[in-house]
Design brief:
CATH class of the largest domain: Alpha Beta
CATH topology of the largest domain: Pseudouridine synthase
Number of domains: 3
Distance between the termini: 13 Å
Helix content: 10-25%
Mean pLDDT: 92
Number of helices: 8
Largest sheet: 9 strands, mixed
Shape: globular
Low-confidence stretches: none
Strand content: 35-45%
């Protein structure tokens, strides 16, 4: 069972619990998810199994897409619906007003992550420390919002938005920043991740559906292969006499190829992921 399963995580379930259930269903010891989803959030949570865990560093860096609701006029201590209301504001945000300022949040920017995030301090998750009443210093990180658009107004002071952003972007913090720009406060009552890198909600399955696939003997069909998951990389075919040396870690000279990661193939098999650098190729992730 080497590959990636795209799980549809429900609200109220932690990402770690998803991995625990997936590991049990597939009977695979090596498993890990590609980016934490808040317990209150739902949506796409890809989980790597077996050899696919070797692709973590590449896949976790891919952009994410979210659909989320911003509710203005109310603030919670966790920036989502799980927290306690700590402030209210009477200002009413108009749709035209929101649309006018959204372009200001597109591009690279510094973001202060919530103390109720899954970032770690001395090996402990910030939200565990915060809930235990310990003082936690918020972390500031550089992020990039590639796309940000208003989908519709869902009610008075409530708006549904879509964002495509870099790894490490906290949508709750983005909503709070938008609210501050509008001269008010806000929180995120609904958060749905619709895409993580190449993995989308269309191919996501619930834990119950995976259990059913196991009972039906079709569990292998629920996996995206390592080769398919890396289809966004260019392919490199090796001559037959270079396959064994490549597997043994030796370099192969490649003229005219740009530097970067590639999918490597022998005459009959997918070998894994390698890097072309200064005219030489070396296999760095063995997947055959």
């Amino acid at each position: 069972m080497d590959g990636i399963v795209t799980v549809l995580k429900p609200p109220g379930m932690t990402s770690s619990n998803v991995v625990f259930d997936v590991r049990k269903i597939y009977g695979e010891k090596h498993a890990g998810h590609l980016g934490t989803l808040d317990p209150a959030a739902a949506g796409v949570l890809p989980v790597c199994l077996g050899r696919a865990t070797r692709l973590f560093d590449i896949l976790v860096d891919k952009d994410k897409e979210y659909v989320f609701e911003c509710a203005f006029g109310t603030q919670t201590d966790t920036q989502d619906a799980c927290g306690t209301v700590v402030a209210r504001d009477e200002k009413r945000v108009e749709k035209s007003e929101l649309m006018q300022i959204l372009p200001e949040f597109i591009g690279g920017q510094m973001q202060t992550a919530s103390i109720y995030s899954a970032l770690k301090v001395d090996g402990k998750k910030m939200y565990d420390l915060a809930r235990a009443g310990e003082a936690v210093e918020p972390k500031i990180r550089e992020i990039c919002v590639h796309e940000l658009e208003l989908i519709e107004q869902t009610g008075e002071n409530r708006f549904l938005l879509r964002a495509v952003c870099s790894r490490g972007t906290y949508v709750r913090a983005l909503c709070e920043s938008i609210a501050q720009r509008l001269g008010t406060i806000g929180y995120v009552p609904i958060l749905l991740r619709t895409r993580s890198g190449p993995f989308t909600s269309e191919c996501a399955r619930t834990i119950a559906e995976l259990d059913a696939a196991k009972a039906a003997g079709t569990l292998a069909a629920t996996l995206t292969s390592c080769e398919e998951a890396m289809a966004f990389l260019p392919a490199l075919g090796l001559d037959e006499d270079r396959v064994i040396p490549t597997k043994n870690g030796l370099e192969t000279h490649m003229r005219g190829m740009e530097n970067g990661l590639v999918r490597a193939y022998g005459a009959k098999e997918f070998l894994g992921i390698g890097e072309v650098k200064s005219g030489c190729f070396r296999l760095t992730i063995h997947l055959y």
